[in-house]
Write a structure and sequence with these properties.
The chain has 366 residues and is mostly helical. Helix content is 69%, strand content 1%. Among the domains are: 2-77, no CATH class; 199-297, Serine Threonine Protein Phosphatase 5, Tetratricopeptide repeat (Alpha Horseshoe), CATH 1.25.40; 307-366, DNA polymerase, domain 1, CATH 1.10.150.
């Protein structure tokens, strides 16, 4: 409201200033033939008449022009700094991050203080034990010290007692180092317990908690340790897709497809480059491209045994028997199942993409 008022005053001042300047220009250049007097114009007198070169009206007008000019000049110097909304939002976010870091630092300090308090408590207990030992080593029972020559031979026996007195002083350091080693052992045990959890289970749990960064680290570590498992690459692709990294997710998915194709190549006897060329041709494995491509005229009937479940990568003789005991005897049945159901039937410790690989084998058989 005050800004709007100031702007109105400035506009009004500019209008008056320009009017007075115009009046002086008219009188100086004598554009009307005679001088124009404002007082006579307002009172109805003779406002056009000859006058001196510099009249009292001219002096008053010059003073008013000077005052208005100075007022406009200094009022224009006042500026209001306005912070853009985006900058304000970033400043608030940075303040929140700083507060979070400060809170974490306070927690670490509190933990350190607790450890120091425990160490001080153990040191006090060690000092108390040292005092008890010193009280036990009381030499007041020796009543006769007149002849020190008789005890010359017994002086070396006092050295072990001095060593025993010095030992309790070292106990605080031992107890503090022992507490530190116990903390390190506890951290290592917790880390082992976390690593013993199945990779898929741990990553899915972190994703359910909204910790996409933690899930990403789990899949990255899994792919680094065992980069030949397509499941790990598919999990990595899923997390990257949720994080908005679509290009990286696509690369991970393509690598997982290549790994599956490699397993199929090992089972079917086809070359890796032939399988990739076949997939690039029409998206399915049907011998439409590659060095072993079959023309539509000479293409023979399917050669893959649909009842041989061991053709599916990750399904051995034992797993195949377990599936057949549940009434699942063909690759087509496996392709229509859920991977979690297959994992439960064959009693596998990790989840794999058996259903997708079965579908690719059937597509290759068409």
């Amino acid at each position: 409201m005050s800004t709007k008022k100031n702007n109105t005053i400035q506009i009004f001042s500019i209008i008056i200033l320009l009017s007075l300047i115009s009046l002086e220009i008219v009188n100086i250049l004598n554009l009307l033939g005679e001088k124009l007097f404002l007082r006579e114009l307002l009172t109805g007198g003779d406002y056009l008449r000859p006058g001196p070169a510099v009249s009292s009206q001219d002096i008053i007008i010059f003073v008013i022009i000077l005052i208005l000019s100075l007022n406009l000049f200094f009022s224009g110097k006042v500026k209001t700094t306005v912070i853009p909304e985006q900058v304000a939002v970033k400043l608030v976010q940075k303040a929140k991050v700083a507060e979070k870091k400060a809170a974490e630092a306070e927690k670490k300090i509190a933990k350190a203080e607790k450890k120091v308090a425990k160490a001080e408590k153990k040191a006090a207990e060690a000092e108390k034990k040292a005092e008890e030992i010193e009280e036990e080593l009381d030499f007041d029972d020796f009543d006769d010290f007149d002849d020190f020559d008789d005890f010359d031979e017994e002086e070396p026996e006092e050295e072990p007692e001095e060593e025993s007195e010095e030992e309790p002083e070292e106990e605080p350091e031992k107890t503090s180092s022992k507490s530190q080693s116990e903390d390190v052992e506890l951290d290592s045990l917790l880390e082992q317990a976390s690593e013993s959890e199945d990779v898929s289970t741990r990553a899915n749990r972190l994703m359910a908690q909204g910790d996409l960064v933690g899930a990403l680290e789990v899949w990255k570590k899994a792919t680094i340790n065992n980069g030949d498992v397509s499941e790990y690459w598919r999990g990595l692709a899923q997390v990257l897709d949720l994080m908005g990294e679509s290009e990286k997710s696509k690369i991970a998915k393509e690598h997982a497809d290549r790994l599956d194709s490699k397993l199929i190549a090992e089972k079917t006897g086809r070359k890796m480059e032939d399988i990739l060329a076949d997939l690039l041709d029409d998206g399915i494995l049907n011998f439409s491209a590659g060095s072993d491509a079959i023309s539509t005229d000479t293409q023979t009937s399917p050669t893959i045994d649909n009842e041989d479940l061991t053709l599916i990568p990750g399904i051995g003789n034992v797993s195949a028997k377990r599936l057949k005991m549940k009434g699942i005897s063909t690759i087509e049945q496996v392709s229509k199942m859920n991977d979690s159901e297959i994992m439960e039937i064959i009693n596998s410790k990790k989840l794999d993409s058996w259903s997708d690989m079965a579908k690719k084998i059937l597509e290759n058989d068409k």
